[in-house]
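dumping the sequnces here before i forget
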Amino acid sequence: MKILVVKFGGTSVGNLERIENASKRVIQKLKEGYRVVVVSSAMSGETDRLINLAKQVDPMPPERELDMLISTGEQQAIALFAMTLQKLGVPSVSLCGWQVPVLTDDVHTKARVKRIVVQKLKNLLEEGYTPVVAGFQGVTESGEITTLGRGGSDLSAVALAYALGADCEIYTDVEGVFTADPRIVPNSKKIPVISYEEMLEMASLGAKVMQARSIEFAMKHRVRIHVRSSFSDSDGTWIVPEEEVMEKSVVRAITLDRNESRITVVRVPDRPGIAYSIFKALGDAHIVVDMIVQNVSHQGYTDMSFTVNRSETSKAEQIVKKVAQEIGAQEVVRDDRIAKVSVVGIGMRSSYGTAAKMFEVLYKNGINIMAISTSEIKISCLIEDKYGELALRELHSAFIEEGEEVKVVNES
Amino acid sequence: MKILVVKFGGTSVGNLERIENASKRVIQKLKEGYRVVVVSSAMSGETDRLINLAKQVDPMPPERELDMLISTGEQQAIALFAMTLQKLGVPSVSLCGWQVPVLTDDVHTKARVKRIVVQKLKNLLEEGYTPVVAGFQGVTESGEITTLGRGGSDLSAVALAYALGADCEIYTDVEGVFTADPRIVPNSKKIPVISYEEMLEMASLGAKVMQARSIEFAMKHRVRIHVRSSFSDSDGTWIVPEEEVMEKSVVRAITLDRNESRITVVRVPDRPGIAYSIFKALGDAHIVVDMIVQNVSHQGYTDMSFTVNRSETSKAEQIVKKVAQEIGAQEVVRDDRIAKVSVVGIGMRSSYGTAAKMFEVLYKNGINIMAISTSEIKISCLIEDKYGELALRELHSAFIEEGEEVKVVNES
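..and the predicted 3d for all of it:
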């Protein structure tokens, strides 16, 4: 039995016409000989509508009840999806997370999948049914409804694919993963095959195609993912283990992230334990800090900068101001007008000169670098926001359009 | 532990403000010393919206999927209700039908409750929680979501009250049960206490306060019900076992039902088996026939009339036309302009003259009686629809306002 898990996002099931369109894609897969398990998100807008209702009751609604409320969005979508499949002649049943069951821990609104029982799904597939499973939701061992947090439906699909030993197709509203955001870089190209590692870096760097946690899960369990558009027939992007990526570009893609802010603690007394005081306080508040820069000390004082996600800037600023006072720093300065531009590619591991070339491109365009961070397969530079699009286009031109990168062909 | 089941209908939870109002009623009951189990319908309009969506997919949507879809209405309402209670300081958890569980048979869209497991509810009550249970929905032994059909939330409440050994309060948008429809009879009065038998007759006769099946269940299991308005503080109507009704009016109430049609099979050959042919065919099609009248035979032919609910008239007409042809009847005539007026009261069992008085009132107002049917505790007359309101007012005046009825006071 050749099984395929096929996941549709909110816009792909945004109205009844689109659900019918999605159903026809499922039928195409059935014709290709697959047994298909469908995973569906809520119809676009529904989850936000429900969260908004809850916030009218209580700005911080109790999370167990929030899960109870918002899980209805997917439940409605899967029922309509299964009805549509049946109308088109395909035997189908919808299943909530608790009916599969998709077992999770009990951390409401951001539960982790612990275990998926696949016997029921397998029986349904063997009986000729096409099950439609609610994404984003699960159930605890004690029967409480949970949701998996942002991007949870992708995670549901990848986890089900793993549990069923299947590949996973993610239908979304973009054509796949691109070498850069096509709205900014018209010359950007669709990437046919990309490694988990690269995709993971890109997700962390602001590419919105898939959430990092789904890719992490896929990487850990080696689930092959095909991300493609539900509005087009062309192939999208395969996300696969590194050894399956034949063409190892030094730079696979360029990303631009405008969702960070920089916070600078000015004139910090330079003595042991100061950095700890600041970042311990932020960690305790569950704030994720990205790039950290500490300048060389002058006369016993230094400046310390870091970036955080825009949504957490105010919270971080508040916390750091308090710490700054305690440690005798002069002031705390916040800057929202920053952007992070990055080059990503697994080929970077076995090549050199990429950083130098990146800095050269920025320098030649008069762009000042405010901070740098690197991993094995990416280099990120913090720059002024107003240069963001220019930097993205110029880096794309230099690294990808001009095709100067060293290509390592996998011979095995 | 003094437990009370409190049920709110769709208009009582129609928006967040009303849910807050309903929550305050729950808090009042908690202050009176009850442990409360809340049962909630979907917010008004939501179930219809979902059914409409399903019908856009398929005019006859598959019933399993329809249950999956429409059960989300109650799930949303209970989550918002539990959030509101928590905001007001009352520890609360919402529970879907499958979480209680409310176990049903597997007849989707009109399932019957088989068994309610109350241990979880009792534990929650003992721990100080106020559980909010989704009405209208249940689950089969094999984990399929079912719904209980029209009036299902009332049934959920009554069944839970039975299972918990509790009384049941039904909050709705009317003040209680009246001696006649107050929109037609301004002098009608709220009935403080009524027997199951009377209430059951009234429900069958078009009074819309509660569905017959909930009352049947309450009668069978002797659950005491208090029907009252969620928009008023005054007492409503208690529906209780007959022996608890102190004042046994001969006529408790007058009802008017304008939701029937009459079908007449004209010039039927009068021979054995003819009635069987007609009503067997209707029974096979699950059509409920109400009043049946067969005239005296003339020259081997007779006319046969019966009434059915307006929603099934066309279907019944079609079936009967086919049978009429087979048995050699002349034609089938349909009349939608009819009304059924009824007097109801348990005191009727031990008194006489009620029928004569009813016929007299109709006669004096120039109203012709087209058919009569009786039970131990009611008399119904079929009349022309245009006289419906007149008949209701005149009968109310004669039997209830003038207070002529024999009153039997229960001495025990």
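Residues 404-412 of chain A have pLDDT under 50 and may be disordered.
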